[in-house]
Each structure stands twice: as structure tokens, then as C-alpha cells.
Design brief:
Layout lengths: L25 E2 L2 E4 L7 E3 L1 H10 L22 H12 L6 H4 L11 E9 L12 H15 L3 E5 L3 H10 L3 E4 L15 E4 L3 E10 L19 E9 L14 E8 L5 H18 L5 E6 L7 H8 L2 E3 H4 L24 E6 L2 E8 L16 E7 L20 E3 L9 E3 L5 E5 L1 H4 L4 H19 L11 E6 L17 E6 L2 E6 L2 H14 L4 H4 L6 E3 L2 E5 L5 E7 L7 H12 L5 E5 L1 E2 L2 E2 L8 H4 L16 H12 L4 E8 L4 H6 L28 H16 L5 E5 L8 H17 L3 E5 L14 E4 L5 H12 L3 E4 L2 H4 L21 H5 L15 E8 L7 H8 L2 H10 L7 H9 L2 H6 L14
Parallel strand pairs: 4-5, 10-11, 18-19, 19-21, 24-25, 24-33, 25-28, 28-29, 29-30, 30-31, 31-32, 32-33
Antiparallel strand pairs: 1-2, 2-3, 4-15, 5-7, 6-7, 8-9, 9-10, 11-13, 12-13, 14-15, 16-23, 17-22, 20-21, 20-23, 26-27
Amino acid sequence: MRPIFSLSPRPNVTPSRSGFRPYVLCRESTLRIFMPGKRQTTRRVLCAFRAIVAAPTYVSCMLTRPAPIPPRRRIAPGLLLLMWATVLRPHVAPAAAQDGPRAPGPDRATMLDVMSFNIRFDNPDDGPDAWPERRRDVAALIRTEAPDLVGLQEALRSQLDDLAAALPEYDWLGEGRSREERGNEYSAILYRRDRLRVMESGTFWLSETPHVPYSRGWDAALERVATWARFEIMGPGHPTGTGGAPARILHLNTHFDHRGEQARLESARLIARWTRDHSGGDPVVATGDLNTLPGTAPIAALTDAGLQDAFSVATTPHHGPTGTWNGFEAVQAERRIDYVFADASIGVKKHAILPGKRPNGRFVSDHLPVVARLVLGRRAPANDLRQGHAVIPHPRSVEMPASGQAAPFLLDERTAVLVHMDAALADGPGTSALGTELERLAAHLRSWLGTSPPANVQAPAIHLALVPRAGNAPRAGGALDEAYRLEIHADAIRLEAATPAGLFYGMQTLVQWLPAEIEHSGLSREALAIAPVSITDAPRFAWRGAMLDVARHFFGPKDVKRYLDLMSRYKMNRLHLHLSDDQGWRIDIPGRPELTRIGAQTGVGGGTGGYYSMAEYEDLVRYAAERYITIVPEIDMPGHTNAALASTPELNCDGKAPPLYTGMNVGFSTLCVEKEETYAFVEDVVREISARTPGAWFHIGGDEVQELSADAYRCFMRRAEDIVTRHGKRLVAWDEVAEVGLGLADGALVQVWRPQTEETRRHLRAAHARGARFILSPANHIYLDMKYNETSRIGLSWAGLTSVRAAYEWEPADLVQGIPEHAIEGIEAPLWTETAETMNDLEWLAFPRIVGAAELGWSARHHLRWESYARRLAAHAPRWRALDIDYYPSPLIDWQ
């Protein structure tokens, strides 16, 4: 093993930071050499030189108060210089020469030295090893090694104050683990002020309730904490990250319980989840005394989550002992319980365990410090294709050149986004509107990526092109209207489609082809290498929808717009708004103010309710259209109508308004279908909403009507369908409408939601024969309000538990026997809101299951494979974290 050396010939001089220094004390020019298995001996430098040649010796300088040295021990300056030039110098070349920043370029890297050090709490009973006897030695060791980051364990506040006074170049952060004044240990982070700037920091407790201060977890003997901080890396000569800003790193430091076996395992799992959810795309390093050996379950929980043990992955051989526990007496080789971990984006250049001792031959602490030199290069882009692409929904065709056979496209903030329109389109009708929409899409993409307006149009650029459709065009709204082709080559990115909608969907694929960091930081002047590819794509189904229930709990325009934004990223194109139910009426109808004055007052559980003004509704329709999503309004009738009945007495057969309802039962309310006032009400509602809804469909519900006979129900639904048709819309209704032999105008849509029996299949086949088409929303697969499992914090379970896999693994064409695929308009994922009260609740129930629904609606059948989907889905977690999506981290997915 080749030793690493540094030499400080005088006290009070900090050596240059040149690599890991095996540890020995020095006083003036005298070195004290510690050889494995030998007692401490003091030698003249010549003797030190002989020892260096003869045995693996760990040498470092620790600055201590100078002591007088007898004249016979003084070293001739010439001998000292000779030693430096001939022996020591080759091993301690300055950091700038060995590991310093390279010339500017996209492959430059940042290096950090990180230490994990359990300094042993200040215990007066430690005798010669008590803190007052060794505090200067601990500070001197840290000063000599000069790490950028130190994870300290067992540090009391008084010890931290001592280190702060002795090391003014450092600052620290953290919280004590307990309320006790004595013995309140910190897992503090010590950091160099000149290299690191704190962006944010915090502490959580290793327990079932990590954000509850002083909580003790599982079978732990003591309270335990993890302290974390996100830093910017600064300093002259150090490379920068995105946009020229300093690079960043997330550091977590902890101390696992010494007795609780379950506590250690659960603490590791908690930290794995926490770092995954909070990295924000930044590199992650973790330090700690974990009180467990390599190969145990807690270590596996961390490494399985992508945190690498620096000891195992360092690119140069480990230096120093292999154990870290010494008990102030002797290092136990098999007891390595102190660690530095780094995620896969970080390289580990060196790793060492420092056998630091004091002048009396005893160790500076009962643990040895662990140090690692980390290399923070730019992360591998999200489109690293060694394991295949991560695009969702899966495109129809993806052609990638073999690795290394084609140069990438270099994308940065100066990349222009240019627009083109084929001459055949430019001369056709609607040219002005097409041109305006094309420019809007280009501006949207520029804003999304953070690129500048086009300047040098000769440079490699992104080209958005509207081109005539080749071949036979399908009916309006068909797959080719949404098709696109994306080509990425070294000299250009070209995205072309026959419609603006196709370009928009191609833009979603392009953004997914870029690294996840683009979601929160945009582009910079540092070029991203974008892998070449050729993608040809078009959707399987025309209807790729989601339903949002705003009646049980009301969600305002801001929340609905966020839902639209998230849907659009996965090429979904219908939002079915459930605007009325027993618990609330959610849209203003001119001429019928009582509907919102009374019916919008409340919701499930007695909340405050709310509604959309017509202006707000029109704004939502416009906002959706800009994302190529059609709003489909639903006014549920004749059942699920208590809010309307409570607002409008004449809609009740007895003319008396029932009280408002805030429960969760169904089937008890119905409009009075014998009264003409009911049809005047339906006319007003359909007319006013249809006039403000450009889309072709109006949903009238029709489900769970338990208070009407089949004949009465049929009569009402026939008249309601006539009203909808008269106002230029096509009927959509839940699948009960198929049971009564309704004529169903050509193109009417039946939304299938119930479990299939032979009777329901017979009714649906009959509806198909009469001209109906189908939207598939099987409750046991894509009702997003169903619980993931028994422990889900919100959700229902009447249709069963719906895991991420169960939501994905079903085939739309096989759902209803006897219904051909060409009769299926598409699929829709409903989210009922009995248990969802906030936007976070909506996101947690929807993500990731809504993404599976998007793929089922878009991708060809042969691409629907769970293993492929699970791998691709895992890669979307960094995007969701960047977008602050509160997703459910299903254990079925190996999340990135």
C-alpha cells in the first residue's frame, strides 16, 4: 500500500489540501510515526525516511503547541529540503496539479472532501480521554485534513462551541436530539465558509413521526436525528453548475441507534425515502455512525436506494485501517460502523480511515474519522439510453443509433426555436390562425426550456414544422390529427406534425427526452448533450381522459389548471368536470342564481363549498384548449341531484326543498321527471353551459338512479338527450343508460364503469348495435379514488384496492366481450373526491396511476408491458419532485 504524506515543518501552518493524510503528530520538524502493531516512537526525519521505505506507515501532521526539542534532534534544513524534494514531494503534489479543475468544458467536475467523525460526547467519566484532554487534538485533526464537509456525531453543544472557536474557517448547523440539557447530542454538519453556502437546512427525527421533535422511533433506546443541508459550492477556480451558478450538493448526517435493530433498519429506509424525495436533482452525500456493519440490512436499504458506500466504490485503493471503532484502545478491524455514502451521480476518488492519535498514544476519539474525496460531475442526462428510453406514453416507434455511432445535439439557452409552415398549408384556409398557433407553441417551448429568441438562425436549432398529412386522412379527431415525428441529430432537432395538437404532443416527448433537471432549472450556457433519436408517434385512442369531481369537494380554478397542466404532460386530451352532485352545485347558471346561492354552500363533511362563475368556467375552457384538452361538462341527472333539489323546490314532486346534504350515500335523490319544470331546468342548464363549451360533448350522468322505474328513467333520458342534441352536443352518460334500450343518437358515448356481468355485456353490445361508442373507466382499475392498499391515508375501497400495477395491467380491447376496438372511443380515469380535500390529496391519489391511464390510452397494445413501464415510470420521479407533485411512492417501483 503506497502511503500518502504531508509535511508541515512549523507549527501553526496549515498544510495545503493535497489528499488524505494518514495521521501522526508533529512538533516543529520532528515526525512521530505510527506503524501498525507498533508502539509510538519518535525518530529523526532520517529514521522516518527509513520507516517509510520499510513498512506501510500512515503519516500526517497535526498542529500542536510547539515543544522545545533538544539540539541533537534538530534537523538540518538541507536534509529537510532533500527529503521534501526526493521523497515527499511526489506524493503530495498540490491539489491543483493532481485533482484541480480542468479547463472549462462540459465534462468539468467539482471535488469535495467529506468527513464522517464521531467525536465521542463530553463524558467526565472518560478520565484521560475526556473531552478537555482531546478537544485541541480533534480540532487540529479537522484543521489539518481541511475537509469541506464534516458530519459530526455525538457532539454536545459545548463541544460544538469549542470547535467553532478553534476552527473559525468553519460554521455548523443542526439540532439536538432530545429535550435533555445534559447529553443532548447533535448530528451536526460542519462546513467550510469559503467553499459552501447554505441554501436550506433542517433536522428530522428517526421515528415513525420524523417531523415531530424529540420523537423516539421503533425499538430505539434513544432519540435519534438526521440533520441535512443543501449547499452551493463556491470558491475561485471551482466549476459551476447550470446557468453559471455554483454547483450544489445535498448533505445528510445521522447517528443510528446503538441497541434497536429494527430502529436501524427503519431509519435506513426513512433516510432512503427522504433523500429520494428531497434531492431535487442535486447530488446527495450522506455521513454517519450507523452502528451496523457492511452487508447488514440497514446498509442494503441505503445501497439499494442508490446511495453508494464510498469505501466500496472508490477508484483508488482504500487507505488506513478497515475498522472505525477503537474504544480509545485498539482498532477492531472488523468493526467498520462509520460511513460516507454518495449517490450514483458522484464519483469517489479516494477513501481513507484515519488512525489519528494524540501525543500520549491514545486515539483522539473512540471512533476513527472516515474521509472521502468526491468528484461531482454533471449528472448523466435523463435520456441516458443504456437501459432504454423513459418516455411515457411509449411512442409508436423509437429508433436509436447504436451507442457512439451518432453525435448528440448540443442544447443550451442560446438554441433557437424556429417555426415552419409547408407551402400547401400556407395557401389554405385558416392560414392566419395556424400561423398564430404555431408561433404560440414556439414561444411556449422557448419559455419552457429557457431559450433565447432566435438570433443566429444558422446555428443548430429546434425546428417546429406544420406539414401536410401523408396518406389517407381519418375522420376529424382521429389518430393522425395528433400524430408527430421527432428527429434529433447533431445539427438539428426537427419536430413536425400536420396539426398544432400533434406538435404539442411531440413537445411533451422532447421535454421528456431532456434531463429531469430541465423541469426546475431550465437550460444554461453549458450545453446538454441530447441523444440522437427518430420517433414516429400517434395515439391508439382519440379519448384519453381524466374526470375530476368538484362537487363532493370543491376545487377552485387554480387547482383545476394545475391538474390540466399535469395531464397535458402525458398527452391526455379530455377533462370531464363533474359539476353537480348531491353535495354541491358548482357552476353559475344565468337566470337561476339560487343554484349557487344555496346549492354551492357546502360539500362532503360540511365544508365551505364554492362554485365557478361563468367567466371562470370560460377561462378554464380556454386554458384547457391551449393545452389541447377539451373540457367535457357533466351535470348529473336525474339522480345525484340533492343540491339542485334543495335550491329549486319546484324540481321536487312535492314542491318542497330537502335540506342540503353533506354525507356520502348515493341513490336517494331524483328530479321529478313528471313535471315540465324539470325539463325547463334541464334546457336552461344545457343551453348556458353548451354555449360556453366549444367541445362536442355534454355529459348528463344518468347513474345510480334508484328511485325511478325503468320506464320513467327511459322517458327522462330520451328527453334530456334531445335537449343536448338540440344545442349541438353529443350525449355522454354512464353505462346505466345502456340498460333501458334508449335509441342513443349516432356517436353517443356510453361510459363503462361497473364490473362486467353477462347482463351488462348484453346491454352494452345492444347499445353498440344502436350506434353507441364507449369510454372505458372500469372502477376496479382506474378509479383514482380507490386506495392503493390497506394503509392508504385517503381513498375508498368499495371497488377493491388498486395498486399502481393493477391500474396499468388491463387491456381496454378485452374489457367488454363483443365490443370491437374500433367502437372504443378511449379511456378515462375518474377521481371522485369524497376523501380528497386538497390539491395534495388529488395529486397523491392520481400520481402515478393517472400516468398509466395515459399510456393505456395512447400507446399501441404491444408496448403495454409492466416491466418496461415500471422502469420508465421510475425515471419520472425526479421530474415530479421538481414539479412539486405529491405522488405516492409505490413500493412496486424502484424510484429514481
